Amino acid sequence: MKRFAIGLVGLGLLISNLTLAQPAASAPKYWILFDAKNTADAPALAPASLSRRQQQNLPLDDTDRPVQASYLEQLAGLEVHIECRSRWLNAVSARLTTAQVAQVQTLPFVKAIQAIDPAITITALDLPANPQLAPVMNQIQASDFSRAGLTGRFVTIGVIDAGFFGADSTNALKHVFARQGVKQVRDYVNNAKTRGNLLRTMETMSDFHGTEVLAAIAGSDPTDNIQYGLATDAQFYLARTDQGNREFRGEEDNWVAAMEWMDSLGVRLINTSLGYAKGMSNPKENYLPSQMDGHTSLISRAAQLAADKKGILIIVSAGNEGEDRSWRIISTPADAQGVLAIGATNDRLWNRIGYSSIGPESLPYLKPNVSCFSRYGTSLSAPVITGFAACLMQANPKLTNKEVIEIIEKSSHLYPYGNNYVGYGVPQASRALALLKNQPLPATAHLVKASGKTWSLPVSTSETIVSVFHKKNGLHVLQQEAVKVQNGRVVLHREKGEKQTTVDLKRKVIEVIWE
């Protein structure tokens, strides 16, 4: 066939030219940040997104306008091949050679060039094929939502994850696909993939991860009579932004691109069980714990922008580094103030399960925000709370993202005595429903004063063992322990540096102030 007969010499020249024009796939990836937008450009938003902004009184601004086309043209003239565009950050991402970095820096409209830290740590442990999540449904009082007819109906949820292999054939999700509840699937790793290929082609074991997350949001298996998630009637947009497992190099810009895609469609609620921490192939590119401050990483800045200016509720796994002595704290973007970061608790005591990441003491706000039980990582506690949020948004579609966060926090069993191990504790559906109706909550939080090194505290509870958080101040935990209830009392032994103690009775909470 002559039309393919280039000849070996010609083919060699073609390959050579392509190599010169495109940086190698191993070349570092950078954000190229621009200085301004063209105010004549119209916002790139769907009618549903525009309507959502109007309902929440959120004005359109420059972050809704596209990146200037003239900037893109000039980059193309330097043979810079753009991978993702971000109207929120007014930036593009691209792989650049050293020579291209020098060239791009000279462009008058380029404000900065910032290297992208390239590895995503998926905040989950190895997952079984059928996660047993029934205990968490009892813990958060799922039956209260069911009796109120709240199933996430009419709520649209975005899920940003590592893959959704087999989602359309999993028993727990068949009801979602049968009613065409998954509206669109987009693959930011392999852009040419069709929806069918993404759901049916497995590249790594992590391609199950998003399927498990989706099941924890909306799953219900009638054959086993198990409810996995709360939002069984919600609608979904799915985005794959990470390829591979915990050690694989992921891409931050894919995450931002998926967020902006969902915003353009009017999605108000997004679950992401991915987090950036350490594990980069080049250790010099790892984040430092001190950088989990809510504003160092660009994805945290994008998440905060989404919360403040787009009215989006982002629910994020806190991370599974709680037992890693070199890290221990939450990953980004869980560090952003405007997102709802979710930790994980034990089933019986409702205190922090060992792997669940804790909040940095340097933050001026509480992280994680709340927690719930998950045997298999915070990747499966976050989607449970995503379903919880969807029920609230169904009950009152006019709630803003910040109002939903406030209700979830106030409904939690330790409120107002939160800590950086489990946040405000486990959200309770009965309390959330009362808050929705502006009904007064029962008096479940009590404050007492104690003195000395040991204190015998009278308690009223059916529990035989309760959780105690020894704290250096109002938020930060020195240690947690399980204490026996004997003869209606809990004996507290004050630790060195301990100023406050939270005694968790599940249905009640007692805050002890040491004098």
TrEMBL record:
Q: Which Pfam families match?
A: Peptidase_S8
Keyword check for Protease: yes
Q: Where is the signal peptide?
A: 1-21
Q: Give the GO terms filed under biological process for this record.
A: proteolysis
Active-site residues? D161 (charge relay system), H209 (charge relay system), S379 (charge relay system)
Q: Which UniProt keywords apply?
A: Hydrolase, Protease, Serine protease, Signal
Does the keyword field hold Transport?
A: no
Q: Where is the Peptidase S8/S53 domain?
A: 154-425
- Molecular function as annotated in GO: serine-type endopeptidase activity
The Swiss-Prot or TrEMBL record describes its family as follows: Belongs to the peptidase S8 family.
Query: Known PANTHER family for this protein?
Result: EGF-LIKE DOMAIN-CONTAINING PROTEIN (PTHR43806:SF67), PEPTIDASE S8 (PTHR43806)
Q: What is this protein called?
A: Peptidase S8
Organism, per UniProt?
Spirosoma montaniterrae
